[in-house]
Each structure stands twice: as C-alpha cells, then as structure tokens.
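Tokenise the fold.
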Amino acid sequence: MRQTFDEHTDPSFGPRHVPLIRDAMKAQGLDGFLIPHEDEHQNEYLPEANDRLAWATGFTGSAGAAVILQDRAAVFVDGRYTLQVGEQVDPDVFEIRDLVEGGVPAYLETAPKGAVLGYDARLHSPDALAALRAAADKAGAVLKPVDANPLDQAWGQARPPQPTAPIVPQPLEFAGEDSAAKRERIGAGLRDAGAEAAVITAPSSIAWLFNIRGGDVIRSPLPLGQAVVNADGTARLFLDPVKVTDDLPAWLGNQVSLEAPEALDGALADLKGKKVLVDPGQSSAWYFDTLAAVGAEPVRGMDPCTLPRACKNAAEIEGTRRAHVRDGVAVTRFLHWVATEGQINPPDEKEAVAKLEGFREETGALKDLSFDTIGAANGHGALPHYRPTERSNERAAQGSFLLVDSGGQYLDGTTDITRTMAIGTPSAEMKQRYTLVLKGHLHLARVRFPAGTTGSALDALAREPLWQAGLDYDHGTGHGVGVYLGVHEGPQRISKAPNSIALRPGMILSNEPGYYKPGEYGIRIENLQVVTPAADIPGGERPMLGFENLTWAPIDRACIEADMLSDVERAQLNAYHAQVLDKIGPLVPADVREWLEGACAPI
C-alpha cells in the first residue's frame, strides 16, 4: 500500500528533543527559538526531512507552530487538531495553545524583557515575521535571524536526507501549453508590472511553469527548487542535479539555464539594481532580506504563476474530466463494497482505506494518492482531518456513519471526493443532518453568479440550510485543486474568510459542506467542480458564471430524508445520479452496475 498506518512520532519526542534544541540555542546565545510548520518552500505537506515541528514536538498536523524558551515551551494548533495534539504532545513539556486566538504573537508578548528570540528567515513569511516582531517589541524582547538553525543542529545526523525524486517532463497533451509560451506570458506580466524579474519558490509554480513533475512532496508530484524568471521569458532553474533526468535539459530548452541550488545566492546577487517581484505569501523573508542586501529592489506581489495556473486551459479541464470518470469507477466499486459486504461485516477504518486504494490501483493509471485517505468511523468522523493509525483504528458500528475523504493523482488530473455512508440504519437525527448538508451542497453546485464574485460571497449558500437549524461547520467550503499538482491550491477558495480573488472560468474548486457531532459522527459530501464561462440566461441582464460538476459517484440514498428536499433539489439530485449511471455504469462489473442502478434510482 501507498498509505501506511504507522505513527512516526510520539509524545516522547518533546522530552527527548527539546533539551537538545535548548543546548544548541544556548550555544548561539538565544533565549528562545520559533518553529513554524512551514519549510523553505512554504509547503503544506512536508518532506520528512523538513518536518521540523513534528521532530521537536511530536505533532504531525498540517498547520501549527511552536516556541521554545529556555524555561518553558508552547505548541500552537487550530481547532481541527485539538484532540490530535493532546495525543501526540507531552503536556509536561509543551503548553497547548490556540493558533488562531492570539496565537504565537500573544505568547511572545509574555517573553522576558531583553530575551533574544531566534528565527530561521528561510521558514517565515515576511508578513508573519512583522506580527511576531511587533509582539516581541511589546515584550521588550528581540527577534534575531540565525545563520544556523539550532533545531537542525540538534537533529544532526538523525535527520532524514532531502528527497531526490526524479524530475520528469509533463507531456504537452496534459499540460495544454508549452513552457516557452507560459514564460512569455509571465514575462509580459512582469513588464506590465514594471518588474524586470521574479523569484519563484512555490513547488507547484515551478512544476506548472516548466511543465515538469517530481516527487519531493508527499502525495503531490512536486519538485523542490527555485527559479528566477526574467521579463524576456528566459529563466534560471535551480534543481538538485541528482534529480535531473537525462531528457530534462532538452525538454527545458535553451532559454532555461539549469543550475545547482548552490548557484542561487549568486543568481540573486546578479539582480542588483533590478526590480524583482517576490510573493510574500509564497516566499520566505530570506529572499526579501537577501535581495535588499545585494542592492536589488524587492517588489511585493502575487506569484505571477498563481492565477494562470489556477485558470485551467482546455486540455487540463478535459484531462481532469477523464481522471474523474476513471476515479469515479474506483470510488463506485468501493461504495458498492460498503453497501453490500460492508453491511454484513462492517469494515474497520484500515480495511476501508486499503479497499479503496486497491480499487484505485486497479485503474492502472494511479500515480499516487492526492493525500492520505481520511477513513473515519463512528466518532472519528467528527474530526475533519482524522487519519487512521494502528492505534486509533476502529470498526464501524451498526447504525453509524463511515466518512471517507480521498483522492488520486493521475497524469491527467487530481481528484478529491468525500462520501459519507450509512452502516446499518442511521437515526432520524443523522438523516436530518445529512440532508441539510446535502441541500447546501446542491445549492452551491447549481448557483449562477456574475463575474467578479469571490468564493467568500458564495460560502453562505452551502451553510444556509444548516444555519436555519442552528448548525454550522468550522472549515472552509471549498479549496482550489491543481491538475496533477497539489490537491490544495490557491488563490481561489470558498470560505467565510475574506478573499479578494474573484472566481474565474477554468478554476477548479471543491464543494464540501459538512456537519460534525463530537464523539458521535461526522458528515461531509464533496465533489469537485470547475467554473464555467459566462452564459446568457433568458430574461437576464448580465451573463453569469456557473459550475460544471467533475466528480461522479453516487450519494448514499439511505442517508437522505427525501421529504426535506425541495422539488428543485430532488430534480437536481436525480439528474446528477442519472449522469453517474450514464458515465460510470458502462465501466464497472455487472454486479456493481446492477447495484448502481438502484443507488442512482430517482428519489
């Protein structure tokens, strides 16, 4: 299996590792050290060698931070990880604090006056550092960049090596536009912005811009590297030579200089006197500091690849459609297994995850999972980011929900789908709340909206049925998704949080409202959908954008309280199921097809 159920950390990490970090801090004259979750590439999912927060604390969530002082320490997590952090971190070493309410800045305000607090400038964004520095100033403490990361020094020879996955071309049939054309577009954008070059550090931007893929980041075909792109479309690309495959130089062409990472400092020095675009949300403070030090003029701005990458071209959209039908066959076979064998012998979480992965492998096209599958039985379903382990594994009980959130990486597309299934007969309350989630999902799927609308403006549509019942959920409703890239992609999103990025044709987003009853069950229904071009509506005065559904797998009818659906919602669900049967039915075995006909029958 690609996914394992092992735990690579435990609560002993803090007692064992914090003293080593403190010794390294003391040798540098530091009274404290700041540890973000992010690495040098601001990754969400980290190579093992860069998961510093996990090594220091034992906490393995995808968001968090820690502060280690000489006499105390704290780890910071958001509400998704409250239970997990309690299981993974020793409370005698770390105080557990909220990442959002006050967070690290509030903790730094309590630092001793005169304390010297170290940080690695390669790991922090400039905006995050500004807030931290203001908090330290308020306490009378000093933030100091370090030349050598004391955590890395403490980790020493035990630290895993940096990943060296081969970097390969992404064929034009899947990319839809060659790298030279992309670089010319980016160069034109730089000229319009008055910049002469841009520094690109986000792995997904590197992969997209040069039409390459790698495997340095878990569950994502991303290469770790950096690039300097000039306004004339030429570029310098910095990659570890051991990862460079034989056909890569020719693929990149003469306008791209392929260089080792050690040459990056010199390349930045070569930008002296130039205006250089750098994204403060994607690139660390080190780049801004280094460019300023060599006499370049850093210009803050969005990574110029971000919006073009988010707006998929025709080849990418068509490939994504194919990938979702292929993936839908695997998911439908899994749903059939749960609805038949799984009702007689309810699976445990590990069995469910392994079964679904097996069906995806049988497509013959799976390159990787797009993230570790969330297979959550019983009360674990109320933990939106739960991942089963050997220790936590539970068997689904009769009268429960089994929530499975999963996805696959294919050469032509990235998938992400959540289905919540009944094991036995759900209670009236469970069906009522499942149907409220479904109503919100359907509303967001059918909405039409004018150009210029942001995801923040649409978020309430998915929540309104729950709000009417006095219910809600604490995660976003939709995230962007790449094409054989990261399963989480910006800048587009659908959430309560303000977002200035308008939705544009070609953007792929998830539609995943949910409901979670702590200790009892969780519900989430997720499809991916792509923003469609504006089209006239008879009698309308403005052309409207909309969504095209991409994900095809039945929604469990046993969980639905049909009387709660409006006529519009009933017709919409029935139409969706008719399409599932049409697209998936011919591609599954006869017994699955027979079951699918019932699963997709009109309500």
Q: What stands out?
A: The chain has three domains: 13-158, 168-309, 311-599. The mean pLDDT is 96.
